[in-house]
Specification:
By secondary structure, the protein is mainly α. The protein has two helices and no strands. The radius of gyration is 32 Å and the shape is rod-shaped.
Length: 99
């Protein structure tokens, strides 16, 4: 009779261990998925931060261009040069976002 109790206890223990192992595998898989999703979200945030910084820089340059008086020849040349820089920066950003 003692042997039957021991076998029953061992069987229960084995069942519980299998249950715990299955839970461990499931949780490990969930953790892997969560880590992957977390990394993707961090990358999205980094890209959005870069876009915000880019827009802030464009705004600052735009303010400089707007503040230049239109009547002066040097100011007009500077304004054209800054606009060309903005176009070049836009091309670079477009190229980087495609890669």
């Amino acid at each position: 009779m003692n042997r039957e109790k021991l076998n029953l206890s061992l069987s229960n223990l084995e069942r519980k261990v299998k249950f715990l192992l299955n839970n461990y595998k499931d949780l490990k898989q969930e953790l892997t998925i969560a880590k992957s999703e977390n990394q993707e979200l961090k990358e999205i945030i980094r890209k959005k931060d870069d876009q915000i910084l880019d827009f802030q820089n464009k705004y600052k340059i735009s303010k400089i261009v707007t503040n230049i008086r239109d009547g002066e020849d040097d100011a007009s040349e500077l304004k054209n040069q800054i606009n060309e820089y903005i176009r070049e920066i836009d091309k670079c950003i477009m190229h980087l976002s495609q890669g």
